[in-house]
Every structure is written in C-alpha cells, then in structure tokens.
Input
Amino acid sequence: QVQLVESGGGLVQAGGSLRLSCAASGRTFNNNGMGWFRQAPGKEREFVAAINWSGDSTSYTEFLKGRFTISRDNAKNTVYLQMNSLRPEDTALYYCAAAPMGYAGSVQLRYNYWGQGTLVTVSS
Output
C-alpha cells in the first residue's frame, strides 16, 4: 500500500502561483511513477502532469505545458506541482496518484493509489 497526502492548495488570485505537495508513505515510493490530475466542478477528472521514478522524464497535458512543472524528491518521498500564471479555469480539486513500474503517463487506470485531493481556487 502507498498512502498519498496532498497539500498546498488554497485561494489565489489570477496570475498568482501555488506549489502543491504530495507526501507518500508505505511501500517503496522510489519505484513509482507519480502523476497529478485535477477535477473541476461538473467535469471529469483530467490528467495534468506525470514524472517517472527517477525524475528524468516528465509528461504534461499540452495546454498546461509551460505554466505547470512537476518534480519529485525521492529522499523526502514527495512529489510537487509548481503552478504559475494561474487562471480561474485552473480551479479544481487536484489529486496526486502513484503508478507501479515507474509509469509516467496520462492513463488514469494505470495509477493504483490516489490521494484525497487538495482544492485550488483561482479568483478573477
């Protein structure tokens, strides 16, 4: 089992920045690929970004590339999502997830552990 706890969400004005953190515990964190997903009110959950186990390979949903950056610190068992130039449409519940075998892609079914989410609200 891997337990994931997100933090860092909150209320921010448009144009501002937030850094989300996801702390992992339980089974070995270093072997897992990690992803961030989000779900806006009334919408389906969507892929944001992912990173492989070593941190040297990342993937992003195209329309967020350049504003969001995913990173990880295996010594701290933590993955981060730096979000810059935030827009009201970025308002959502943000989830981190862990995937076995270092998977770092957008397919949600590949992720077998999920956190409870942290809420990001961007005001205009």
User: Anything to note?
Assistant: The radius of gyration is 13 Å. The first strand starts at residue 2 and ends at 7. DSSP finds no helices and eleven strands in the chain. The CA atoms of residues 33 and 103 lie 5 Å apart.
